[in-house]
Specification:
Largest sheet of chain B: 6 strands, mixed
Helix content of chain B: under 10%
Oligomer: heterodimer
Shape of chain A: globular
Structural class of chain A: mainly beta
Strand content of chain B: over 45%
Largest interface: A-B, 30 and 27 residues
Radius of gyration of chain A: 13 Å
Number of strands of chain B: 12
Helix content of chain A: under 10%
C-alpha cells in the first residue's frame, strides 16, 4: 500500500537560504494539499491543487512561499530566503475528487529547521 | 469562515479508564468533521469522520464520536484506553474541496 511520501524528512538550513520540499501523493488522487504545523499547534492550511491547477494560494504565508505541481502528480513547496520563523513541520496530503467529505491522507511531513 | 476549538491541551487518563476529548466547531456552511491522531514523529492518521447520517460515528482503534449540531460539538470517546493510545489528537472541520481547519490538538497521556 503506497501512501503519501515526502522528501526530505528533515532539512536543516541557514537563514537566507532557499529550500524545496517534495510530495508524492497517492497515485489515483488528483487533489494535493500543503499544510504547515508549528510546535504545539494543529496543521495550518497553505495551498492546494486539483491536478496541475493551483486553486487556492491566498493562504500561503508570504510571497517567499510558492508551490508547483507541473504534471498533476508530485508537488514541490519552495521557501525562498528562509527565516527562523519558518522552522516547522510541512505536511502534504492528497485526496480524490470523488471522495465525499474531502477526506485527506497525510504524508509523514518534512521537518524544517532554520538556524 | 470555519474554526475549531479543542478545549483541553492535555488529558491525563489511567490505563483502561474511559476518555473523552472535546471539540467544538463553528462554520457558516455544511460541515464535515474529522478526528486525526498523530503519533510522535509521524504524519496524521484518520480516526473517524462525520459526513452525514447517523450522529454516532465509529472509527478505528475503538474510538467513536458523536456529532451534536445544536451544541456544535464533535467529542471523541473511547471506553477503555491503552498505553498505545498516547498521542496527539486533532479535530478538524472541512466544507468540501478546500483545506481542513484544525484545532490546536489534545495530548492524550495514558498513565499506567
Amino acid at each position: 500500500d503506497t501512501g503519501v511520501s515526502q522528501n526530505p524528512r528533515h532539512k536543516i538550513t541557514k537563514r537566507g537560504q532557499n529550500v524545496t520540499f517534495r510530495c508524492d501523493p497517492i497515485s489515483e488522487h488528483n487533489r494535493l494539499y500543503w499544510y504547515r504545523q508549528t510546535l504545539g499547534q494543529g496543521p495550518e492550511f497553505l495551498t492546494y491543487f486539483q491536478n496541475e491547477a493551483q486553486l487556492e494560494k491566498s493562504r500561503l504565508l508570504s510571497d517567499r512561499f510558492s508551490a508547483e505541481r507541473p504534471k498533476g502528480s508530485f508537488s514541490t513547496l519552495e521557501i525562498q530566503r528562509t527565516e527562523q520563523g519558518d522552522s516547522a513541520m510541512y505536511l502534504c496530503a492528497s485526496s480524490t475528487q470523488g471522495l465525499a467529505g474531502g477526506e485527506q491522507f497525510f504524508g509523514p511531513g518534512t521537518r524544517l529547521t532554520v538556524l | 469562515a470555519q474554526s475549531v476549538t479543542q478545549l483541553d491541551s492535555q488529558v491525563p487518563v489511567f490505563e483502561e479508564a474511559p476518555v473523552e476529548l472535546r471539540c467544538n466547531y463553528s462554520s457558516s456552511v455544511s460541515v464535515y468533521l474529522f478526528w486525526y491522531v498523530q503519533y510522535p514523529n509521524q504524519g496524521l492518521q484518520l480516526l473517524l469522520k462525520y459526513l452525514s447520517g447517523s450522529t454516532l460515528v465509529k472509527g478505528i482503534n475503538g474510538f467513536e464520536a458523536e456529532f451534536n449540531k445544536s451544541q456544535t460539538s464533535f467529542h471523541l470517546r473511547k471506553p477503555s484506553v491503552h498505553i498505545s493510545d498516547t498521542a496527539e489528537y486533532f479535530c478538524a472541520v472541512g466544507g468540501g474541496a478546500d483545506g481542513l481547519t484544525f484545532g490546536k490538538g489534545t495530548h492524550l497521556i495514558i498513565q499506567p
